[in-house]
Amino acid sequence: MKVAVLGAGAIGAYVGAALHRGGAEVHLIARRAHGEAMRAHGVRVLSPRGNFTVRPHVTDDPAQVGPVDFVFLGLKANSYASCGPLIAPLLGKDTAIVAAQNGIPWWYFHGLTGHPLEDRRVETVDPGGAVSRVLELRRAIGCVVYCSTVIEEPGVIRHLEGTRFALGEPKGGVTSRCAALADAMIAGGLKAPVELDLRDEIWVKLMGNVAFNPLSALTRATMVQMCEHPDTRELVATMMNETLAIARAAGSDPQVSVEKRINGAWRVGHHKTSMLQDLEAGKPLEIDAIIGAVVELSELTGVPAPALRHVHAAIGLLDQTANAVPVGAH
C-alpha cells in the first residue's frame, strides 16, 4: 500500500508514522522547519503507549511521490479548495482521499440514499463546488479523529491521548478500500473501525466541536472552565440540543446524551480547543465546517437554531477582527 500524507502536521505525521511502522509505503508532504527536521532525522513519536522513531520519505514536492493508493489529508478544511496543485500529482485512477477533518465534510449528502437532500451540496464547505472539483466525491473516505497530538518541536510529535480513527464511505457499507486502509492502520497500532454510517460518528464529535470551539475562542477559556461556568454550560447544552435536532432532521441519529458529552469534555481538563489555539497563533479560524455548515443545515432542514446562529455571527466577526490592523494604525 502506498500512502501520501498531505499536510503532515501533528495528526498527519502521527498517522504517517504509524502506517510506516505497520509496513505501508508512506510519503509525508510537509514544508518549513518541521518537514526539514523529519527529512533529516525521521519522525520521532513520544507517546504514553511507547516512544518510537521511523524514517518515511519526506518531501515538500508531491510530484516526487506520484500517484498513491490513499491520500490522507492532514490539512484544515478551509484549505481544501486551494490544495489542487498539491494533490493533483498524487491522484491515480483509483486513489482514495481520506479527509480527517472536523465538522461537516464537503461530501455530507453524497450518496445519502432516500433522503430529500440526497446529493445536495453544502455551500458553506463546498462553495460553488470549489472543493468537490479538487476532491472528487467518488474518491472520498470519511474519517472522524479521536486522537490528540501536538508538534513538540520540528520533527517530534507528542501523542497525548486517543488512537481511534473511525472510517466510513459516504454511501455507507464496508468496501474493500476501507477495509484495506483499516487493516494498515491497525497494523501500525491505531484503532480504525469501519462504520456502516459514519455520519452518526461525525455528529457525536461535532456536538462538542460546534459549541466548545467557538465559545473557547470568544472567551479564551479551557474546556473545564466552560463546563464549570453555569451560564456557559447552559449555552453549551442549548447548542448541543440544537445540533442533535439538526442531525436527526438530516438523517442521522447520534447515540449520545448532551450531559454525557459535556461531562466528557469536562474530564479533558484545562485543554485549549484547536480554534482557540489557532486564534492565539494568528491563524484563520476553522469556522465554516465546524459551525457554519451546521447553521446551513438548520436552514435546509427547517430546524430552528437561534443559539448556533448567534454564536456563529460572533465568531465570524472575531475571525475578521482578531488579526486586522486597527483603523488609524500605521
TrEMBL record:
EC number, UniProt record = 1.1.1.169
* Domain Ketopantoate reductase N-terminal per the UniProt entry, residue ranges: 3-104
The Ketopantoate reductase C-terminal domain, residue ranges:
197-315
**Which Gene Ontology molecular-function terms are recorded?**
2-dehydropantoate 2-reductase activity
* Enzyme superclass (EC): oxidoreductase
Alphabetized Pfam families for the sequence? ApbA (PF02558), ApbA_C (PF08546)
Q: What is the protein's given name?
A: 2-dehydropantoate 2-reductase
Please provide the record's keywords in A-Z order: Oxidoreductase
